[in-house]
Design brief:
Elements lengths: L1 H13 L6 H10 L3 E4 L2 E6 L2 H14 L10 E8 L2 E7 H12 L8 H11 E4 L6 E4 L7 H11 L5 E4 L4 E5 L2 H10 L3 H50 L8 H12 L5 H6 L7 H19 L13
Antiparallel strand pairs: 1-2, 2-4, 3-4, 5-6, 6-8, 7-8
Helix pairs in contact: 1-8, 2-3, 2-4, 2-5, 7-8, 8-11
Amino acid sequence: MESLNRTIWDEWGAAQAERQGRDEAAGIMDGLPFRARGEELFFLSPRLFAVRRLMRLWSECFAGRAEGQQGIRLVDTQRKGKIVFAADKKQAAELLSATRSAAKRTRNWGWVRGLFGSCGALYMPKAGYYLIMRPQAANGSAERLQAILKSCGFTVGVRKRATYRELTLRDQQQIVTLLSRMGLVKTALSLEETAIYRSMRSHANKLVNCDAANINKSIEAARGQMELIRRMDELGITETLPEPLFELIAARKRNPSISLKELGQTLPRPISKSTVEYRWRKLEHLLQTQLKGDDANVLRKSGR
């Protein structure tokens, strides 16, 4: 999971802005809480890499304009583990208004990408996957994001919080599709590889657990049979048994841990597992009869 997280944020931060730079910058801002003070908006973010990405996009969006370099600045990088930065109110409004004007009729993946960078995350617990975005509730970003995702057929879970909305995707294939739409192709491929590896490992674990259960069952059965043989030997019953039952006991003594199926194949005349089970039940009955003091001559009857 750590390597996948590194992949996703390295790819997100290194991508070329191209034509969607303004949309992505707006998405980053829409995912963060802020407050106005004078001619600036003060934003709070836990992600320094997202702030640096926004500053680079900002300089590209306002390249050639004198106020471009001064339009955004770091204020504090050590405020309880979060970063405070200030953006020029007019420039921020210019970026946000251009994106929001087409919000209702456009699936703006550049904006979604920016939003994901500022308030999104991908999680991979021991079972399953989920991608979460927590846009601010006050600016309508949550409703806009939900509309975009639902229009593309994504199954979105929504939970309301005090200041934000939590939108969640839990289907692995839908998560891969969304990552691809946001231009995070390398991450999407890594997630698919991880999903394949998880599936193969899960299948292998099931086989191992099944084999282990079968082995334990065989060992337990063999232990019980060896105990039965010991008691029959003590009572002097073994030598009086019919040949088929005597051969079975002799085979078990030679092979104290093999399975019933394997035991049946070691006999001079191989038999099936069900026949082996039948003969062991017959031996158990004979022992119980002897222990109860039944002197009937049942031991000389021929076995199956």
